[in-house]
Request: fold
Amino acid sequence: MIRRYDYGNPYPSFAAVLDLPALKEAPPFLETETEGGEISFTLSLHNVDALYGLGEAVGPIDRRGRRYQSWNSDEFNHAEDRQSLYGSHNFLIVFRASEPFALFLDDPGRVRWDLGFEDRGRMRITSENGDFSLYVITPEEGTPRKGICADLCRQFRVLTGRSYIPPRWALGYIQSRWGYAGEEDLTAVARAHRERHIPLDGICLDIDYMDGFRDFTLNEKALPDLKGVAGRLLSDGVRVIPIIDAGVKKETGYSVYDEGHEEGYFCKKADGSDFEAAVWPGLSCFPDFFREDASRWFGDKYRVLMDMGVEGFWNDMNEPALFYSPEGLDKAFAEAEELRSGMMSHDSSFILTAAVDGIKNSMDDYRRFYHRIGERTVRHDKVHNLYGALMTHAAAEGMRRAEPDRRHLLFSRSSFAGSHRDGGIWMGDNFSWWSHLALHLRMLPSLNMMGFIYCGADVGGFGADVDEELLIRWIQLGAFTPLFRNHSALGTRLQEVYRFPKWKTMRDAIKVRYSLIPWLYSEMMHAILSDGLLFRPLGFDYPDDPLARAVEDQVMLGRQCMIAPVLAPHVPGRNVYLPEDMLLVRFRTPEDYDTEEIEAGWHYVRLDENEFPLFIRRGTFVILAKSGERTSDLSVEGAATLGWDAEDYVLPLYCDDGITFGAPDGHIVPIRMERDTEQN
Amino acid sequence: MIRRYDYGNPYPSFAAVLDLPALKEAPPFLETETEGGEISFTLSLHNVDALYGLGEAVGPIDRRGRRYQSWNSDEFNHAEDRQSLYGSHNFLIVFRASEPFALFLDDPGRVRWDLGFEDRGRMRITSENGDFSLYVITPEEGTPRKGICADLCRQFRVLTGRSYIPPRWALGYIQSRWGYAGEEDLTAVARAHRERHIPLDGICLDIDYMDGFRDFTLNEKALPDLKGVAGRLLSDGVRVIPIIDAGVKKETGYSVYDEGHEEGYFCKKADGSDFEAAVWPGLSCFPDFFREDASRWFGDKYRVLMDMGVEGFWNDMNEPALFYSPEGLDKAFAEAEELRSGMMSHDSSFILTAAVDGIKNSMDDYRRFYHRIGERTVRHDKVHNLYGALMTHAAAEGMRRAEPDRRHLLFSRSSFAGSHRDGGIWMGDNFSWWSHLALHLRMLPSLNMMGFIYCGADVGGFGADVDEELLIRWIQLGAFTPLFRNHSALGTRLQEVYRFPKWKTMRDAIKVRYSLIPWLYSEMMHAILSDGLLFRPLGFDYPDDPLARAVEDQVMLGRQCMIAPVLAPHVPGRNVYLPEDMLLVRFRTPEDYDTEEIEAGWHYVRLDENEFPLFIRRGTFVILAKSGERTSDLSVEGAATLGWDAEDYVLPLYCDDGITFGAPDGHIVPIRMERDTEQN
Reply:
């Protein structure tokens, strides 16, 4: 059951698709406090309670004892104590012995979450705006305990809408790098994969494909004929996926700027002039996506590239990230001058560096511009966390208008609750660290709770230099995530798999992924169409097993499986906890794997560097298709089945054309276990 | 066997105490390459080889596949990809199936270590100076494989000298915080511990106790009577441990500066004038510790505080850290001005922040000043990595001169091979992160290989805000490390154990530590006096057990034990690998614990938050004394014995007065297992 409570004067909701009446009485469970415009909700916690949710955030899946802030941030350092990343996902499940419930704060401003940090016996959630809707969700009558968390997520999805449906090719392997400029890179990368039979379905273009980082333009020198190269690559099963940034270069004569400026589509300062801040193209203006006309205008721009054969985009810098504003720069220089002229005290160098570093993503700037929301003029910081969501919504709507029946790939860096209807997200600027490989795994179920079924992190790590062993293990995790993209930053070690001596080990893991795609796609579609989760914490499925609840380096995948990737260097295997009997499949290639029937409990599973495991629940099975180098090669015909005691299980395999919306031909093919392959 | 090979014109050695003749032939095992003044050594690696060593560094205990640089750095962010920390520890064990060996590069300049990062089949070690001595150490004839790594470390200690011997009280619990200013803090902290019966043997004073951060002065307002308060605290078993920084404030009238300036003790620029750079006191000069007279002069200054009853110090900022130099500041402002006047390009804000951030610890500054080494004038960057070692050597010598027969506590942030003779080290500015708790554990054996037996990290983490659960688990690890200091940074959450609701759980772990001190001290002294290791990787003791070699979240402690702390939040226990049968002791308090005889193999060990484990090898035992609140309370009388099948084991317990040097009364007390306590 979903109950709504309004506080102050809530901003128009982007997240909710259900228009529930706001109740007058006080919400259940929570103590409400008001102080200086802020509204806080507090709740006593017991040591056995688990707190799931908040989507994109560092730390454990069970957020208990941690501290967070909802404030969409261009944060390149996902350190353990960071409180904010790129998205604000104000949904929290309070899973406790009695009266478990979930809450959602539909608040586009800053929200502080103390989930037992100051006092482990108490959680405190604070809205700085004080204007928002609170939704309290309680489980449907009679839901068994092991279904409660999933049911709370399902109801949240009923409130916020069905998840985005990507085209099936989006489950293919995608190669990306900041630095790919155009045709030469696209052709070389595609060829390098095809020559080595490394599966590939897409290549991402980062900012360098544009003409001076101007949205919807092309770097004439590097990419004179996008349509041509996109067509040639597509004929080989490779899609080109360009990036679009939120900021529009301020430059008279650049049509996008001229239109936006003349039509008044950009965010304004108090004096009514366009707000300007520097991002990649230099001084830029920022479309006011809160305006229907501006949103429509920007969304239609994507057509410029779609008309050249582009079927997918990624939206970046849409927190929005701001390198500096002219005003911020003046302030920093003034402070620096003052320090310079005055006596340098012992810490003046810290003040100096802080002043200069402070020009980036500064609160002063976020308070410097305004949005038109209907009749209201709203200062940006009050609704900051919606900006990226609205940009991606504009893009999604634009593509729907352009090709109403066609699915497109779209994923964004910044997001808000409800963004899951418009596209997927990637986990932002991670590093080539083993700890970020583990973070990638932990964030999957948390993002699924928000409805972001199509998601993944930069495989291999964006920043820092990867080493071969880390990349191998990361590919082995990416093989299970819907968004499976190898991406790295300009200036870091080249990270395409074929750059490494053991590229064949990585290729084989990618080939296994392709063999699993028919099943993985089916499970993903089931999660989407049933408002369910593809990835779940073990605690969702085994709530009364304290060991299962404590395990955070394994996650449930689909209705049949559990994954437990190797997350450390130099190890011959890892400990895996089986909450129930499962069949271990130890993959080396789609053809070369062994299986082992393992009973519930702790087991040390040996895994050589070229091996990675999939655990299949006893009594179920999955199918393994003949692999291919492009998703279009894949067919269920003659697929092997992998399972244990699964003679009575019917695998409901979802099949459709993978490209149209609503998928009129979407249907379930009931699959039964093959006798022979069982004793593989 | 130790072989020496000289290259170029080696700088006088600080590390070696053995004066071996340099051999003319080429060194064994290694390929030598010379290129542009740099000298590199390369070696093929096999996948089964392990690379141990490099002391203070992030990453795994087995350094295989990683990349490092020896360059002493004031690095506050111990991220996974950092290549340098505060010390340079150029000792590496190449543990391979045949012909295992170790090497030591006695090179005070920058050394690059590619330990299989670029190519996992090859390691490459490069000296940028090209002037150094290389030592190649091979195992003594007939050393069993399980003794080889320890033997290579022992020989390295023969080469570099016996480890520093701390007073026994230094094994007590030490409370510290950047911000403690003087008498009020000292008294309050001591009282808060005593009132709650939380054991305490020392309190560290950070920079605020000084008068304007001037070395060897006192903050008259906060600390008018150090002698008085130190005496009062000492009578209660609490020592005051002040910090000393490397930089001397440049200020006429400040006697330390005046003396150093007049005598010419400070490092000079090319024009012969004193080199100046800002650190905590503002513009400062830096004693040229390479000069015997300057070293003696600075070392004798410690007496100022010793005469007030101080028995221990910690040396900081001695990489040396440099906030900025006037020249560096001018350069940064010039660059900023240029950017300002010119068109701001899209990345000019990065250039600006880089220019300003670059004033800190800049290579330009490290090339700006010179040392007198005998008759030679040497530019700092050539011998950079020795500066901190020489500062701590000056301090150690000063204390020896002041009180030749008395042990003092001394630990330093920066160090070099050989520093282990003069004092211990702490692991620098870590964060309140779970990953840094694990890093603390991994660094212990690596530091022991360098001879740093007295060492530890800031318990609870220096930077960021700790949460209660992390602090509890960190205290449970610190309970086993010789340096057991809770330290945190100004502005972070107060971290004294009594600030937290569950302070009793932490107190009990500290009490267990005190009960273990008689045994722990004995094992520490054994490691010191036998040139051995207190902490060892499992791979040292079980080289032919691939599982033991792969385990890096457990370490061997002393001759009898293994530790395996809980390193994750919200878990009811952890997996532990037993390479042989061991007795598990699950500690809650010194009086309340249970024991379990566990056979070799993997086991999930349940550990509630108030429990922490010690694993005792079958056939040995340890003693558990009656606990106390100060190390001086402790006695072996009536100590319990904890072991399994240990009737035939004789524990050689080292006892001495714990305070004098050479410990004339040092002797071994043979202890036998008590029958009764065995079946506890």
User: Anything to note?
Assistant: Chain B has a mean pLDDT of 96. Residues 443 and 634 of chain B are 29 Å apart (CA to CA). The two ends of chain B are 46 Å apart (CA to CA). The longest helix of chain B spans residues 503-529.
